[in-house]
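FAQ

Q: What does a record look like?
A: Structure on top, sequence underneath. For example:
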């Protein structure tokens, strides 16, 4: 019995050993088979890359697993749940690549990162999968393909009409092939990125070359226009140097003229048009013709495609009507200064946007050059007025100096001859004193305007009443008015509230206004001073029946170094700086001055000071 049991145990052990040996043999055979497949794949794909490699990969995979269909996909980066195939094997040939949504397909689980092994009845589980139906698939095995960061970027799958057997072997082989596919797809992605970077570099290089050429053009033009010293030559230079614009047949420039209040034809590349420089457009006509309703391709640059029938056509028709116009509006300090006009005589779509862009680059340089020229013109004009003023000031100072010299010479002669008469000498000294006072006032005005314009003056603000200022000044001006037989009337009934001002400077304002009113009013005339509280301000008006001012005077009245056409009626002196000083002082107080005048009738000067302005408001 014992012997029987021992024999049975030995038989069981032998059977177990035999089973293990069989399993080991099976594993060994599977390993050898996998190694053979892998070596075969490596040998057949070692000389190919990219799409060709992936095609060979799916072909060898289907053959190795004895499955009819095999394909590899890549996830769509723009649409979640959508994939596109990179290689498809259909049993006998490579199929066309396609895209599909993974919803309602076994691929959904794989794309979500899972291995999917369905050995049979696959269509019953996914009845809406059209690919399974088309291929009459019975079994499906899929495995995800990941990138170097572990993110799923596609999948590898095999299908067959029959039942799949040997799950472990199939999955092991799929895993090996998936790893090989991952490395190739990563290499392909890297190649694509490198190619994209190269393309971007080439595009950047081409763009830089183009921009360099543009800048060279711009610099050449800028250098040319910056050498010009007047507006007409500048615009002519701009027009000559912008002939490169494609489609341009004729170019013209119109510039705003302050004297006429209109835009005048100033320059052109057409000699015949240059003979017609008397053409003028009002600001409204220029705006309607070149801006209103037109396409603004860049700031202040407009394309006019439908020219016929536009505003002011009758003024320019004799020059030839273009088919299309490219217009640049020139704006300086928010005021339209002019227009550059590029005409094509035949084509409504003549202008190239690349050249228009280059014109846009030039715009700021044209603006700067025009501003420079305007400043030079203003400085030249100001220098001329300064020289004129210095001549007048020298003349006005020479008279009292000659008077002083004459009186001093007479007094020296009387002293030497011992004929000095006290009464006569006192009269002479009084005349000398008046002459020195006149010179002092002139010098004070020159120093005042210099201090105000250089910003060296600082207001000493205090709380006071404007009527009290008038009361302090009125006595001196009353005597002056009586000497000239002028009636001086002061409004003392209107009560005005107190406000902040610099008392000394406000006395200067009142003295200047009263002195001017009396100075330019003839004997028998009148000067009236009135007050009004209006819209949060105190308004003081000084009205006279004097000589009055013409339109030219009114434009120049508050400018530096300018004497007006009206002359003092009593032979008084004038530097022409008084009203400018008044305006500067009022500006510092946050106030204003206005003038209404008619030649031969009289003038009214109105100053306004805000009631709400306080000491802290003035720097």
């Amino acid at each position: 019995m014992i012997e029987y049991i021992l024999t049975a145990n030995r038989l069981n052990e032998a059977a177990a050993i035999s089973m293990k040996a069989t399993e080991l043999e099976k594993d060994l055979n599977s390993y050898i088979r996998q190694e053979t497949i892998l070596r075969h794949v490596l040998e057949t794909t070692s000389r190919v890359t990219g799409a060709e490699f992936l095609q060979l990969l799916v072909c060898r995979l289907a053959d190795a697993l004895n499955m009819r269909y095999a394909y590899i996909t890549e996830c769509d980066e723009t649409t979640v749940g959508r994939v596109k195939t990179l290689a498809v094997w259909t049993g006998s040939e490579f199929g066309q690549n396609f895209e599909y949504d993974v919803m309602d397909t076994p691929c959904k689980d794989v794309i979500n990162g899972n291995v999917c092994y369905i050995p049979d009845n696959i269509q019953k589980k996914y009845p809406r999968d059209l690919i399974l139906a088309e291929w009459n698939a019975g079994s499906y095995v899929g495995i995800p393909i990941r990138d170097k960061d572990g993110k799923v970027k596609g999948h590898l799958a095999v299908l067959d009409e029959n039942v799949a057997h040997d799950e472990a072997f199939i999955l092991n082989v799929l895993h090996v092939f998936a790893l090989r596919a991952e490395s190739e797809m990563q290499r392909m992605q890297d190649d694509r990125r490198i190619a994209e970077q190269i393309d971007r570099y080439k595009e950047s290089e081409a763009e830089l070359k183009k921009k360099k050429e543009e800048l060279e053009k711009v610099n050449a033009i800028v250098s040319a226009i910056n050498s010009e010293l007047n507006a007409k030559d500048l615009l002519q230079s701009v027009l000559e140097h912008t002939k490169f614009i494609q489609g341009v047949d004729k170019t013209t420039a119109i510039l705003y003229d302050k004297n006429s209040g209109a835009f005048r034809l100033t320059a052109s590349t057409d000699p015949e048009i240059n003979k017609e420089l008397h053409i003028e457009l009002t600001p409204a006509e220029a705006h309607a013709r070149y801006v209103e309703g037109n396409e603004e391709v860049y700031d202040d640059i407009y394309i006019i495609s439908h020219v016929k029938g536009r505003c002011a056509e009758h003024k320019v028709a004799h020059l030839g009507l273009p088919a299309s116009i490219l217009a640049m509006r020139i704006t300086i300090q928010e005021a339209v200064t002019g227009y550059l006009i590029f005409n094509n005589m035949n084509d409504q779509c003549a202008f190239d946007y690349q050249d228009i862009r280059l014109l846009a680059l030039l715009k700021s340089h044209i603006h700067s050059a025009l501003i420079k020229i305007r400043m030079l013109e203003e400085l030249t004009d100001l220098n001329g007025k300064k020289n004129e003023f210095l001549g007048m000031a020298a003349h006005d100072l020479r008279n009292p100096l000659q008077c002083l010299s004459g009186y001093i010479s007479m007094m020296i002669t009387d002293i030497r001859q011992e004929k000095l008469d006290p009464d006569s000498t006192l009269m002479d000294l009084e005349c000398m004193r008046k002459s020195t006072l006149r010179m002092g006032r002139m010098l004070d005005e020159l120093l005042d305007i210099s201090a105000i314009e250089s910003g060296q003056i600082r207001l000493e603000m205090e709380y006071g009443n404007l009527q009290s200022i008038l009361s302090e000044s009125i006595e001196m001006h009353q005597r002056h008015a009586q000497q000239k037989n002028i009636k001086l009337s002061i409004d003392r009934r209107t009560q005005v509230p107190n406000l902040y001002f610099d008392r000394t400077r406000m006395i200067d304002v009142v003295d200047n206004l009263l002195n001017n009113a009396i100075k330019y009013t003839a004997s028998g005339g009148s000067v009236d001073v009135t007050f009004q509280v209006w819209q949060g301000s105190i308004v003081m008006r000084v009205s006279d029946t004097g000589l009055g001012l013409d339109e030219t005077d009114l434009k120049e009245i508050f400018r530096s170094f300018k004497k007006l056409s009206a002359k003092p009626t009593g032979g008084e002196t004038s530097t022409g700086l008084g009203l400018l000083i008044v305006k500067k002082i009022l500006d510092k107080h946050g106030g204003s001055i206005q003038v209404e005048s008619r030649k031969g009738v009289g003038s009214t000067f109105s100053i306004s000071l805000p009631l709400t302005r306080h000491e802290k408001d003035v720097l």
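Q: Is there anything notable about this one?
A: The chain has 16 helices and 20 strands.
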